[in-house]
Design a protein that fits this description.
By secondary structure, the protein is α/β, with parallel strands linked by helices. Helix content is about 50%, strand content about 15%. A seven-stranded parallel beta sheet has the order 3-2-1-4-5-6-7, with helices on both faces. The longest helix has 22 residues.
Amino acid sequence: MNIAIVTGASSGLGREFALQIADRYKKLDELWVLARRKELLEALSNEVSMKLRVFDMDLTSEDDFAAFAQELSDVKPSVRMLVNSAGFGFLSEFANGERTIWEDMIDLNCKSLTRMTHAVLPYMKPGARILNVASSAAFVPQPGFNVYAASKAYVLSFSRALHSELKKRQITVTAVCPGPVRTGFFKVADPNQETAFFKKLMMAEPRNVVFKALDDARFGKELSIFGNTMKAFRLISKMLPHKLFINGMRYIDCMK
């Protein structure tokens, strides 16, 4: 049985990945969707023609993950695509944020993604694809978004190294690094509406980001960066000292 797995599929980019995978990859037998909000996952069944298997689970829960791993072992599917999209951010200086927020962010953005990838890899054959949702925040350290940017830098580094390691198995890994996307992300990350105005101006539509990511993965690319602005940002971030970016971000923060 050929399947695709999408984490964080109840909303945002994860939901869009689920919708587009179901629409574009008709040869899949099932689409496994994972998130905590069961009702939103079940609502997807009304929007896709592909058979869905819903896993309402907390990806950071040891018990929930063990149950999912057991299901993989029992079914032994051929996983043609894994999309690690679950994650969240929070806009705050480190000292002002609750310790549990930072720990939960690292657990979901880094630990759960790593654990899911390791669990699914034994069920992937040549031609399979992994897409890990990182962020353009991974390119440089970001004051005020410090833990989130660091967690996504981990995802980017991990994905690129794994892409190289899995070449011999003909499995590709694509790090998806969008800039701001028009999802519910900032409602959680920025409840006080302090997001810089230029980020709001550059917000991309999730359908466009996901469409490009799936295309880039199909062509075996290790990076998927949507839009010329974000591509230029990555290029500049490689050329200029990160200290300049950090100082610039601090200046913008002071001007609010």
